[in-house]
Model the fold of this input.
Amino acid sequence: IGILEKVNSVNIGGDGDFEAIDLETGGHLKLEGSSVYLILPTSEGIRIGNQIFGRSVRFNSFSDGEMLRVNGRRYRDGIKISSNSKGSLNVINELGVEGYLYGVMAREVSPEWSTEALKAQAVVSRTYVMKNLGKHDREGFDLSATMTSQVYGGVEAEDRRTSEAVDLTRGEVITYEGELIKSFFHSNCGGYTEDVTNVWEGEEGFPYLKGVVCPFCKKSYQYYWEKLVEEETVKQRLNENGYDVGDIKKIRILGRSSSGRVTYLRIYDNRGHIDIRGSNFRMIMDPSLIRSTLFAIERMGSRIRFYGRGWGHGVGMCQWGAKGMAERGANYRQILQYYYPQTKIEKWED
Done:
């Protein structure tokens, strides 16, 4: 897991004594757990204290129960630090899938949720990581620790209840016709999940990613939202992303999907108009601003009011819906079958 990318320095320490292994020469160096070591990239290799190593170094604790620390944060298993072509460092946490999930779960859902909802998220997140191994091969790791993969925070992000949900579903994944599914999920669907083909081009042939009615997420504070945005802001962000837009005169919704989400928008300016996919417009504007494509538009002077329901792309499992289903007595298998129809839950080894 890439926990830090393109940094110019990093501090590493441990709960107890640990070692550095030069992956180019095989050389070992014992390091004291009571000390913190500054790691720097140089033209010759990686500097640890006064010693120069090769361009890739692995750090291991001498005891399984003792964690390594990167900039003060604790991480399970091993840490690998490599210098990249830009002369900076990539810091990678090397660990198993289950240990990784411990550090993901509480960043994705509240540990206060019911056990069945947490178990559903654990299976979805495990399926996601196993399906996406190697996603960042070019950078030298499998997944990032950010929203581009799943948000990962190491040991500091772990919680007893979410870790228990990982343990209770150990090795379980979701499959369709014997293959791992694309286990998309989102925070709140606003009452109806979305067909994947309406969100991303080329994502076809996945019957388990069809929209379903979801009456379970209404209690969420995320169910309704609205934002006022200056027309000038819309113009600026579109131009920054390759669209040639003049002064905006009007924005019109061209079409909606069966779930009510905006499929295309037409933006009129002083030179004509452009058409843009609803999901692309949301990402350009900032998905925390336009929280879903399930929205309407109202012009208010020089500002545009966007108001709608839900938070996220709407594909796959609705996390707040899973919470609502669990509160009504559904178990995690029933939750997953509902949001990913025609799939199976199987036990795979990590």
